[in-house]
Amino acid sequence: MTADLFDDLEAPSPAQELLAPGAVLLRGFARDVDAALLQALDDVLAAAPLRHLVTPGGHTMSVGMSNCGPLGWVSDRRGYRYDARDPLTGQPWPAMPGLLRAFAVRAARAAGYPDFMPDACLINQYLPGSKLSLHQDRDEQDFSAPIVSVSLGLPAVFLFGSERRADRPQRYRLQHGDVVVWGGAARLAFHGVAPLADGEHALLGRRRINLTFRRAGLDL
Ligand code: MD3
Ligand code: FE
């Protein structure tokens, strides 16, 4: 008798857009908390500054990166991996601010993932010209968990392909406050970000910040 009620509660709201099976766009979901998210981020970046990681192939990434939470994504000549410590300081990554964690959990729930428990938040900073080549996110232990991504600042053209690198990716413009939850069939899709176009954002100036909340390990 309550089935219909629950069906309504679980039904996609008009604010949800299915980009592809498993990829849910929550347009503007972060807009009303943007300043709070950025303030929490300031504390994290004071303890673990953005840096340009080197790929196993020896290229320096154009995106500046840092992390918070129990695990952080790192790259060096030895490979890509998650590590509990910041290689720059030898210290554990800064804790994931409760506000960030709660926001990611709320976004995952809105997209149909009620059990999301992030243990890593990767912080990417793009300046004009920064890009991220087509890749898969496969350094996590549990592909059944989605990845929640939050776009802040300048808009970016996001490339979204399939599980086959050769497939021509679709392009989406992600704007300030957009949140995408990548799970299910989309979880292992190739994706990337086209070189950031110059511009000026009221809150962030000439840059774009992307946060990705992940379940990287099996147990905390
Ligand atoms: C689709 N970051 O950090 S977020 C990354 O805008 C990354 O900084 C991009 O790709 C950025 O690894 C894109 C969107 C995203 C994140 C993870 C995905 C899309 C994804 C995993 C699977 C499929
Ligand atoms: Fe990625």
What can you tell me about this protein's structure?
The protein is α+β, with helices and mostly antiparallel strands and 220 residues long. The protein has a single domain (15-214), classed as Alpha-ketoglutarate-dependent dioxygenase AlkB-like (Jelly Rolls, Sandwich), CATH 2.60.120.590. The chain has three helices and 13 strands. The chain has helices at residues 3-10, 34-47, 98-110; strands spanning 16-20, 23-26, 64-68, 72-76, 79-83, 120-126, 132-135, 147-153, 156-160, 170-174, 179-182, 191-193, 208-214. A seven-stranded antiparallel sheet has the order 1-2-11-8-13-6-3, covered by helices on one side. The termini are far apart.
Throw out a few tags for this protein.
Jelly Rolls, binds fe (iii) ion, 220 residues, disordered N terminus, seven-stranded antiparallel sheet, alpha+beta, binds N-(carboxycarbonyl)-S-(naphthalen-2-ylmethyl)-L-cysteine, 3 helices, four-stranded antiparallel sheet
Give start-end ranges of low-pLDDT stretches.
1-8
Count of DSSP helices? 3
H/E series, N to C? HEEHEEEHEEEEEEEE
Major sheet characteristics: 7 strands, antiparallel
Calculate Rg over CA atoms: 17 Å
List ligands, each type once: N-(carboxycarbonyl)-S-(naphthalen-2-ylmethyl)-L-cysteine, fe (iii) ion
Which term fits the overall shape? globular
Number of strands: 13
Give the averaged pLDDT, no decimals.
94
The CATH topology corresponds to: Jelly Rolls
Biggest sheet strand line-up: 1-2-11-8-13-6-3
The CATH superfamily is: Alpha-ketoglutarate-dependent dioxygenase AlkB-like
* Class from secondary-structure proportions: alpha+beta
Supply the number of structural domains.
Answer: 1
Tell me what the CATH architecture is. Sandwich
Q: At the first level of CATH, what is the class?
A: Mainly Beta
What is the CA-CA span between the terminal residues? Answer: 39 Å
The percentage of residues in β strands lies in 25-35%
Helix percentage: 10-25%
